[in-house]
Write a structure and sequence with these properties.
Length: 284
């Protein structure tokens, strides 16, 4: 298992089909057009980074957010228990707050320790992300990252601090008028009518270049997990850039009901397959 393979725990759970490089951000370099802390920040001219059909749909009037619900998952890689992950949603004023965690366990933790927490906020009515923060403990890397979506200026503003060296990083990238992020996107897809044969296209940003995600609703299937047996709808998200475009695939199985709870997720990449299965549902 590659050193950073354990980081797919969070990649998959956060549905980051384009920016899988989120989990190699220690090696991430500024893309063309980015500004770093080493140079004066100059005004950025927003550029069209997505197609005209790519957009975030407003929240349906009858949609109920699963506030107070925490989903707990176990991750399996080649019959090994690779880690655990969780997703929790709660109300926060006019916004929704999503909390995501990922931890490596067992042999995987010995190879590469992961202890990450993500906090994402998005507008309850529009589903537009407002900001996301990350505390990442990945191997020898320890970082705090904040991403703010400045819609008046059409910019994603990233500020990151290396907690070991004190090094600071600042970048700005153009965004359209509304984007999702790597954490809230899983709930955004779940809010859509998931009819087999349908494809939804939407913009997603993780502080870098905005990517266009296509969520293909494929088929209905029965899925068995430790939390029970579920009738589900299988969805395959696909990014226009990134690792998964050429070397792997991701699937998410949502319950075939109004809740569209994600009960199973699977990433198939060049080094193997990582599967997340719902272990239990905790309600406050």
């Amino acid at each position: 298992m590659p050193q950073r393979a354990a980081l797919l725990i969070l990649t998959l759970i956060l549905l980051a089909p384009g920016p899988v490089v989120l989990f190699v951000q220690a090696q991430r370099t500024p893309s063309q057009g980015q500004k770093t802390h080493a140079a004066p920040v100059k005004p950025v001219t927003p550029q069209a980074t997505i197609g005209p059909v790519s957009h975030i749909r407003p929240t349906p009037e009858n949609y109920k957010f699963p506030n107070g619900q925490t989903l707990h998952y176990n991750a399996e890689w080649r019959l090994w228990n690779a880690g655990t992950a969780s997703l929790k949603m709660e109300a926060s004023g006019t916004e929704q707050h999503v909390i995501g965690t990922a931890d490596s366990v067992g042999v995987v933790a010995l190879l590469y320790r992961v202890a990450d927490r993500f906090d994402s906020y998005f507008d309850r009515k529009t589903f537009c992300s407002s900001h996301i923060s990350k505390h990442s403990e990945e191997g020898r890397h320890l970082r705090d990252t904040s991403i703010r979506f400045d819609y008046p200026r059409k910019l994603a503003v990233l500020d990151e601090r290396n907690l070991k060296t004190g090094e600071m990083k600042h970048t700005e990238e153009s965004i359209p008028g509304c984007v999702s992020d790597v954490l809230s996107a899983i709930y955004y897809v779940g809010s859509l009518p998931l009819d087999p044969g349908t494809t939804y296209t939407f913009p997603l940003n993780d502080g870098g270049k905005t990517v266009e995600v296509k969520a293909h609703v494929e088929a209905r299937e029965e899925v068995k997990t430790e939390a029970g047996t579920f009738s589900t709808i299988r969805v395959q998200p696909e990014g226009d850039t990134g690792v998964l475009k050429s070397r792997g695939k991701v699937w998410v199985w949502y319950t075939d009901d109004a809740a569209h709870t994600p009960v199973q997720m699977r990433a198939r990449l060049f080094w193997g397959t990582l599967t997340f299965r719902l272990n239990r549902i905790e309600r406050q």
